[in-house]
Amino acid sequence: MIEQLPVEFLRLLGVVLAAVVAAFAALLPACVGRDRVRSVLADRELLRERARRIAPYVGGLALVLAVNKGLLRRLEAFSFEYGYRATTAIYAVEGNLVAAIQDAIPRAAVYYFGPIYVVGYVVLLSFPLVAYAFARNLRPLKRLIAAYAVNYAFAIACYAGVVAYGPRSYRDVPGADQSAASVEPLLLDWFRGVTRLTARVNVETNVFPSLHTALSVTVLLAAVFTHEEFPRWTPVAAFLTASIVVATMFLGIHWATDVVAGTALAAGSVALANRVVD
Hints:
The protein has helices spanning 5-32, 34-42, 44-70, 72-82, 87-94, 97-104, 110-131, 139-161, 186-190, 192-198, 211-225, 233-250, 256-277; strands at 84-85, 162-163.
């Protein structure tokens, strides 16, 4: 299995990249405009200036991502040693809400929510990074990159301090209420290859807060702030964000509590990013 993993990784990566390129091909002319893209790309001096001004923000985000990846297993060990075990407390707050969400949505919807959770998420996070490079000024792009970095930095701290399993694993947690409604691990059952790959960049206890929710809502807030300049992107961002938030729960990955915490993290990250850019 270990020898097959790189091949599987490259195959899935190719599918994701192809889907992202196709989405960009449709979104760039629709949400940014061909004329705007051509005019910016034609001005090489402007491109160099913009690249120079945005470089410190990209460097900061890259540093946070490198720390997150490099310390992933150490943070996991630290959280198990010193972190607060929150799974049963989360269930005590919200009970069988996630199970009810799964029951309310037809199982066939996994063919929509599964790809949305992976491909839609990549499109949602990456497209505004490109689109805002063609904005009248770089403030939206700086703010978004800074907000991404803040989201990841705070999430790292939360994952180090809180040990929480998602609803799909609740019954296996010591002290769990065995009468709790069952939550199916739909992503694992239907897209097993994807979950094996995501396990390489994440751990099962990193659920509070939901980083999928935090970053998606961050993009939505940025889209609202830039609605006047990119009006067609706002409804697309809203649709993708709503789909991803529902997917996190429908697929059995996150609790509603994680989603609420992720939304709060997004709002705080955008507010702090505004101060950083100012």
